[in-house]
Amino acid sequence: xxxxxxxxxxxxCVLMLVGSASTLAGQNVLYYLSQxxxxxxxxxxxxxxxxxxxxxxSGNSNSVRVTFIAxxxxxxxxxxxxxxxxxxxxxxxxAQRWPFQAAGLPGLDFSGDxxxxxxxxxxxxxxxLVRDATGAITQFAANWEQHCExxxxxxxxxxxxxxxxxVIKAVSITLENPLNTRGCVEASSPQxxxxxxxxxxxxxxxxxxxxxxxxxxxxxxxxxASAFSFKAPLSAGPATPVVxxxxxxxxxxxxxxxxxxxVCVSDTTPPSIVINSPVPGQxxxxxxxxxxxxxxxxxxxxxxxxDVFVGSTFVSPIDPKTGHARQNVxxxxxxxxxxxxxxxxxxxxxxxxSGQRSVTVNQIP
Length: 365
Prior knowledge:
1 helix, 5-stranded mixed beta sheet, 365 residues
């Protein structure tokens, strides 16, 4: 069963330690994240506090029962150590449905709002358990993972009763850069782009001092703050991403969780083309027209050629050398009178992005 739980934990969504302004010391909080397909939580992420309803805690040396009642909601959590042992802070693996767990296994059951498991597998961690002189529980903090009917979708839950242990929420990394039409960050230079990420809502009641951040990427970059920036190289697209990993450790209980985010960098911006000469409406005598063009591209600094068209007729490719060229592109006029001619310049960069610019002139004999 331990091997099964380890496998399930490694393949399911990862959780991260996070606090918020609603989890100040001594408050009562019930939080759960239900994966799609989980019958108990119906795929929702819910937080209840003492402002939403009433928390009561009872139990004995072996088990704890937490009840939360609010208008339209009722939830029950039962946790028990194996074989009648004393329940105390620690990790409890291979849990089965309380109170029907097999000998040698801890008991777990989270149910409510009319839904419960017939059988379940799971695990839980007790972080804080304080009893007074009469044995009544005065402070309690625990996290659990429950799979109803042994299914893969999980419900991850956290309970805090008069506790200052930070609440756990789902891990989330935000990419600050907008994405282009290829689903990548737009390249800003031949070297790629500066990519910025943030760990969402990663603070706690102590102002974040109890959380340790560790970022790393497949580019070799690292970071230790809640925000992370690094230079990602130009890539072929989403099939060849840079993978970023975030690990956060809560120093109050040494719990660590990780999350990953993939990002690619691509160039979707066409070259910038400026026709310096001729200007629109310019009168050209005979074939005396010289085309003067400037081409720039953010990523491709060495565009090797551009194509010139007079009307729909392709004239020739021209080597702009350093992005600037001047060449005669007109033949002698074949008719009397003024003729309007459109000159079009088209350039394609190394990423396959094409840009074009046109100018119309009047040609006379």
